[in-house]
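Re: the request from the purification team.
They wanted to know what the chain is likely to look like in 3D before they choose a buffer screen. I agreed to run a prediction and write the result into the notebook, where they can find it.
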Amino acid sequence: MPDFSKILLTVDFDRTLTGPDSKIPERNIEAIRYFMENGGAFTVNTGRSTTTFAKYLETLPRNAPLLLYNGSASYDQGGLIDVQQIDLDPLQVIADMRRLFPGLNLELQGADNHYLVEPTPNAEAYYKGMHWGYAVFDENTPLYPFLKFSLFGQTEKPAVSDLFRATEEEIKYFEDAARTIAKMYEGKVDVFLAAPRIIDVQPIGVSKCVAARNLQKKLGKEILVCVGDAKNDIAMLDGADYAYCPADGIVADRYETVCECGKGAVADVIYEKIPAICQIQP
């Protein structure tokens, strides 16, 4: 039997563990169980929150804390741990974002919920279609901790994949917007494109890589293996001991690839790549 006990495997969720249809291929689930049964530590490392990951908090096979909010908090034993919050006034953030990007949907994320700011019918339809809980933010909303905020484009249907489809003009707009936010709040936040039409903003110094390395140290694992597909995964992939990307990932040109996400990219890493790693580092 193989021995994966030296390895922590953290993987992105959307379009890495899941396929483009937002469903987890059964091949991935089987591989994760196989990996854990043979001593490996597995968890998801995602920009999603407890609200948007609620369906999987207690049902996804794992044996390590979930890494959520792009590393701003972890989830284990029914609650958040290792929480880090944004050192900004939410009301000032709202004023800044509404002034600069009035055409984008704005959400603030706390530990208990997502808060839509001046929600459009489009944004509300998206959340309802995704079966995600949310509330409408007002000046009396007790947002604590302030974990993350996001801006995202208008959608045609309630599917994460809809935010991955973008024209060249939209890609440039969101890239420029991300740079503007990073400059405005320099020293306070880190800014990532979670998808071509989603901007994630989180506390300075927080990343999927930092969260994964902290967890690796806590678990006493020797090797960190990571799998991701998008620009908010770059820090995690660059900081891993071994990094892989689905063949259809946005950043596939930068990393060693496995099969497409919908065909079981995580399973490919577990069945094909990790045994080879174990031979290199017995």
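For the purification team: The longest strand covers residues 189-195.
Please add any questions underneath this entry.
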